[in-house]
Amino acid sequence: MPKLGDTIFAIIHVIALIAVFIYGLVGLIQHNTRRFAVVCGGLVLYYFLVLHKAVSKEIDRKRRLKDSSPSPRS
User: Fold this and answer.
1) How confident is the model at residue 36, as a pLDDT?
2) Phi, psi (rounded to 5 degrees) for 18
3) Measured between alpha carbons, how far is 31 from 37 in angstroms, rounded to an integer?
4) CA torsion through residues 14, 15, 20, 22, sign
5) Range 33-40, long-range pairs (CB < 8 A, 24+ positions)
6) Rounded distance, CA 11 to CA 6, Å?
7) Is 17 exposed, middle or buried (0-12, 13-18, 19+ CB in 10 A)?
8) What whole-number distance in Å separates Cα of residue 40 and Cα of residue 18?
């Protein structure tokens, strides 16, 4: 059950981030570049403060899995 809870949390989180980005795009379409810049700057800041460490760990984990798997011989 914890895996399902983590998955649901991640999906809701991604949907919220996409919604914030779309909000910024709407501001850009309405020629409100300041709103777009603030929203995108906030998303970049959020990535580096919250997500970057986890993303880096996941990339390293995937590389280790790929390197440890036996390669097919031709």
Assistant:
1) 94
2) -65, -40
3) 11
4) positive
5) none
6) 9
7) middle
8) 11
Rounded-to-integer distance, Cα 64 and Cα 74, Å:
23
Reading the block at residue 35, the tokens are: 């709103």
Averaged pLDDT, 45-63: 87
- Over residues 4-44, the pLDDT tens digits come to 888 888 888 889 999 999 999 999 999 999 999 999 999 99
- Residue 65 CA to residue 54 CA, distance in Å, equals 17
Q: Which single residue is written with the structure tokens 């914030």?
A: 20
Q: What is the DSSP letter of 71?
A: P
Do 74 and 58 touch, CB atoms closer than 8 A? Answer: no
Return d(Cα 36, Cα 21) in angstroms, integer: 9
pLDDT of amino acid 54: 83
**Residue type, position 15, single letter:** I
